[in-house]
Amino acid sequence: MALNSIYGEILNEHNLRPVHKGRIENPSLVLDGKNPSCGDEITIELRVNDEDVIEDGCFTGSGCAISQASVDMMLDLIIGEKRERALKLYEIFMGMIRGEAGEEETEELDEAMVFKDISHMPARVKCAVLGWRTMREMLDGRLSVE
Amino acid sequence: MALNSIYGEILNEHNLRPVHKGRIENPSLVLDGKNPSCGDEITIELRVNDEDVIEDGCFTGSGCAISQASVDMMLDLIIGEKRERALKLYEIFMGMIRGEAGEEETEELDEAMVFKDISHMPARVKCAVLGWRTMREMLDGRLSVE
Amino acid sequence: MSQNPYRQDFPVFRNGKYRYMDSAATAQRPDSVIAAEKEFYESMNANPLRGLYELSVMATQAYEEARRAVSGLIGAEPSEIIFTRNATESLNLVAYSYGLTFLHEGDEILTTVMEHHSNMLPWRMVAERTGAVVKYLKPLKDGTIEDSELEEKLTGKTKLVAIGHVSNVLGCENPVRRIADMAHDTGAVVVVDAAQSVPHLKTDVKELGADFLAFSGHKLMGPFGIGVLYGRRDLLEKMPPFLRGGEMIESVTLEGQTWAELPHKFEAGTVNAAGAYGLKAAIEYLNRVGYDNIRRIEDELTGMLMDVLTEYPYVHIQGSEDPSKHNGIVSFTIDGVHPHDISSILDGSGINVRAGHHCAEPLMKHLGVQSTARASLYLYNDEEDVRALSEAIPGIRRVMGL
Amino acid sequence: MSQNPYRQDFPVFRNGKYRYMDSAATAQRPDSVIAAEKEFYESMNANPLRGLYELSVMATQAYEEARRAVSGLIGAEPSEIIFTRNATESLNLVAYSYGLTFLHEGDEILTTVMEHHSNMLPWRMVAERTGAVVKYLKPLKDGTIEDSELEEKLTGKTKLVAIGHVSNVLGCENPVRRIADMAHDTGAVVVVDAAQSVPHLKTDVKELGADFLAFSGHKLMGPFGIGVLYGRRDLLEKMPPFLRGGEMIESVTLEGQTWAELPHKFEAGTVNAAGAYGLKAAIEYLNRVGYDNIRRIEDELTGMLMDVLTEYPYVHIQGSEDPSKHNGIVSFTIDGVHPHDISSILDGSGINVRAGHHCAEPLMKHLGVQSTARASLYLYNDEEDVRALSEAIPGIRRVMGL
Ligand SMILES: Cc1ncc(COP(=O)(O)O)c(C=O)c1O
Ligand SMILES: Cc1ncc(COP(=O)(O)O)c(C=O)c1O
Fold it and tell me: C181 CA distance to ligand 2 centroid (A)?
């Protein structure tokens, strides 16, 4: 029941008024992420430039508040950052959820820290990490639009 | 544990020294009976004459003391009797095992009355009735040597 | 009914914490069922069927009594009752044994888009492997299957009809008897998925016209790990065995084997005797309460629930407007709130409802929703449960900032 | 060991009535296993996997913890552990899913004449349907499989080797590792029937070289209705699902479906979560006792029993003369007394042994017996059990008038 602490203003704001929901121009990477256990599906688009900087990003698709808000917060964090930094943030996020990340590190996740206790609701972990997993797969360099 | 009352002199006598184990001349009916749950197998031979009298009978095959003694006692009872009488005895025997036969009727089974309490050992009922079932199938007129 | 007299029989409710409304997924178990399994292991535990000693005889008797209890419940002969693990295995047994043997290229299997995956995917497997074709009846949004659908899709080629008795999403009861009559006229066999009906409705295989009927023990308060397949004797007799191994043979040599008589031919390996004994206790409990009482409780509570829910303009109930057509199942959505969030937020108040596609994805698509929240009631639910759920709905919207 | 300290943990022995020596058929259950199932139903009962509320999350955790306990017991990854109903279903799963997909006409399946029917009939089914051929290794009377047999019958055509780890009649342990090494050299996969070994011997799938390994919960003191299949990940991944239905899919549309990830792909329908939780309690109990202790108790009692039995000239023991090669299993015959009568008469003194072909008819024929009586021991047996049995033997002959 600890989960209810996750629901709240921050989550709602990102769920109801996501900043990054929509399309961007000339994405260099596009990938679908799917949460088989609930049917939620999102598509992430990223534009990464020659210096490996994520210039812009967005998502489309439907899902629960947790998956929608989580991906929106993630995009907040990684847009403008370098590929390595985004992958580092992924590690921190996963570490936080597994309860393995230090407090200092976790602070780097900013608003995404609301998902700290999601592990109390194992069925929802997949929702919270859907966007993050998809992003990591994209930046692992194995996938691109071309 | 009531079963042990079944084991005893009468049963042993028929098991160790069966009167009807062997072969007869010119059987008119021959049938195999099998108890799938334990692999026991017997073959009964009967010679029934034109007046429907069971002139002679015998059995071969292996099995536990209960099935061997039971078929031997059965042959004791039916040899010399008419087909209908044998089928009647079958009904009484089955009735006794189901606990439905009256005491008077049961007396007609003579030594075969030792199986009265076999129902306390359901796994052994099949042994006790193996010969009887086979005999009934033979006399139902559906099977013959020719 | 202000106090539900049965609730106290269910230990999970004793701490007063849970408002459990997910019985369509699995029921709660009364003390008597839990005690039956315990009693089995403590005083009659042995491997049944082949043992010649007292313990094993008691185990065998317990197991076969359970079979009789099941056959009595649905109007079948004991030898027509096969114990499986769950309804899913029962349906797969029919698919593998009957389907793969008796269906051929060009034959048609008729089912509906509202089936649970367990009554859909086995038939697709049969189709893939035999060259038969699966056709789907499309119901109206309230679950009604129109005659025109049936007349169009049930043809001379239809060899098997697989139909759910009660939908686990809409709660509607399908006209199994009418469909069975039509199917039998064209020579098809009828497989009934009764997972959601046997726990709630008096079910008789002959009255329904079912050639096969499957259900799970755990949805009628029995243990997990025990399910039932009813099969018409003549069909079971001509079918090859499914799982092979101990207990289902008559004799085995290096050259070949012969099969045991029914129902053992279909029960390979050590049986779940304790589970069957627990299921018997569940059936006894169910009979003590009686289907009439179950019906009354479910309909009353469903009515209460639907009355309140329909007053919220942002709540949408799937299926019929008539509570008595829901068999205790109420699937709903809330505008702006994903069903997973509904379920998670309700959990914060100890209210347990399911959310998702309920193993009926094609039905979700047909209804035009991605998923729903589902409250499903059973004989132990009470007005407090329904009130708690009803009153929590506006709060969900609030929590979500709506 | 004069007093067995574990015996008191088993409620079935508390009335002092039974001298249970049929553990190869099914084990007795300690209090902790019975309590675990009860605890599950009383405090964490819900349908696992899909629930979003606390009860269902607890059920899911209990179920997955059980999977981890099993994987730890046999040295596998949790995702390689599939819960089934029993060893028989595990073996059938491999036969239907792996066998029917990857075996073809002319391929050979190698097994032995000493297999339990559950590790023989599924392979015959595969042979019948694919055109593959089953070949049988013939052991010596004590169970030894000679190298010459293996070299002759394991050929380049052998695609699957199905071998029991411990015989349920002779008690002998087969050289699985050696056979697996040879089989892998020719490119065959190795299926190990570990129903009789996991309860008694530390078993590690990697050390054994098993590609698949099957066993039943009920033989290691767990509940009925829960069994295990281990499968090597890469094999499981390329195999099609077996049973189809709820919980084993990723998504379903009218056009097709995709499967869930391992191990769920092979677990269709509602899982037996309470059974798995009970099995976990059984594994914990087994680990508390320790395989070393089990070994010691079994070997000591087997030695005692065989010492006495060999003194009766009319008693004949099947298998090795070395008690430590029996894994607690002693099959025997008595001249002039049918094994069924042995078992029935012993039952009169509360002594429980099995009699029959032990689901191994071809082995019976190979040994030249129609059936045997079998005493099988486990960690809760004590000297009193063995003494009672030993001393009852002459009485059996007496009762039979010999
Ligand atoms: C060697 C062996 N294999 C397989 C089995 C089958 O186990 P189950 O009946 O639990 O499926 C048994 C037990 O009877 C056995 O002893
Ligand atoms: C309509 C229907 N059919 C089949 C099933 C499958 O039952 P089980 O998961 O017990 O095999 C269910 C339950 O989930 C159901 O609701």
Answer: 25
State how far residue C167 is from chain A, nearest Cα, in angstroms.
20
* Atom of ligand 1 lying closest to residue D90 CA: 11
> How far is D352 from D348, CA to CA, in rounded Å?
9
Q: Do C273 and C348 share a domain, yes or no?
A: no
Distance from CA of B45 to the nearest CA of C (A): 24
Ligand 1 pocket, residue D119 CB under 6 Å: yes
For residue D216, give the ligand 1 atom closest to its CA.
Answer: 10
Do D247 and D378 share a domain, yes or no?
Answer: no
Same domain as C189, residue C314: no
What is residue A37's predicted lDDT score, i.e. its pLDDT? Answer: 67
Residues D154 and D44 in one domain: yes
Instruction: Kindly give the interhelix angle for D273-289 and D31-43, rounded to the nearest 10 degrees.
Output: 150
pLDDT at C45 over 50: yes
Task: State the helix-helix crossing angle for D273-289 and D54-74, rounded to 10 degrees.
Answer: 40
Q: Tell me: the pLDDT tens digits for D345-379?
A: 999 999 999 999 999 999 999 999 999 999 999 99
* Residue C52 confidence (pLDDT): 85
ipTM tops the 0.90 cut:
yes
Q: What is the pLDDT of residue B146?
A: 37
Structural domain boundaries, residue D352: 7-21+291-399
Interface test with D, best of C53, C100, C258, C264 (most D CBs within 10 A): C53
Instruction: Provide the 10 A C-beta neighbour count for residue D398.
Output: 10
Residue with tokens 């360099």: A141
Q: Distance, CA C260 to ligand 1 centroid (Å)?
A: 17
The answer to whether residue C242 sits within a structural domain is yes
In a shared domain, residues C238 and C380: no
Order of strands, sheet of D158-164, starting from the edge strand that comes earlier in the sequence: D81-84, D227-231, D212-216, D189-193, D158-164, D108-112, D133-137
Closest ligand 1 atom to D193 CA: 3
Pairing of strands C108-112, C158-164: parallel
**Domains with residue ranges and CATH for chain A:** 3-141 (3.90.1010.10)
Active site residue C172: no
Cβ neighbours for B102, distance < 8 A, ≥ 6 positions apart: none
- According to DSSP, the residues that pair with C110 across neighbouring strands are C135, C161
* CATH number of C295's domain: 3.90.1150.10
- Closest partner residue to A1 among D54, D251, D258, by Cβ? D54
CA distance, residue A68 to nearest chain D CA (Å)? 17
D347 assigned to some structural domain: yes
- Report how many Cβ contacts below 8 Å link chain A to chain C: 57
pLDDT of residue A145: 41
Q: How far apart are CA D108 and CA D133, in angstroms?
A: 5
Same domain? C13 vs C153: no
Q: Do you find a cis peptide bond into D313, omega within 30 degrees of 0?
A: no
**D38-67 as b/e: b if 16+ CB within 10 A:** bbbbbebbbbbbbbbbbbbbbbbebbbebb
For residue D28, tell me if it sits in a domain: no
- D219 in the same domain as D358: no
Integer CA distances (angstroms), D396 to A125, C363, D45, in order = 65, 66, 49
d(CA D135, CA D398): 44
D359, D369, D388, D400: which is the annotated catalytic residue?
D359
Q: Do C41 and D249 touch (CB under 8 A)?
A: no
- pLDDT recorded at residue C167: 98
Instruction: Tell me, in angstroms, the distance from the centre of ligand 1 to residue D25's CA.
Output: 8
Single residue among C286, C318, C349 that ends a domain in this structure: C286
- Determine, yes or no, domain membership for D170: yes
Instruction: Identify whether residues D101 and D129 lie together within a single domain.
Output: yes
pLDDT-based confidence at B4, cuts 50/70/90? low
CA dihedral B125, B131, B133, B138 (to 10 degrees): 180
User: What is the tens place of the pLDDT at every residue in B57-73?
Assistant: 999 998 999 999 999 99
The residue from D267, D286, D305 where one domain ends is D286
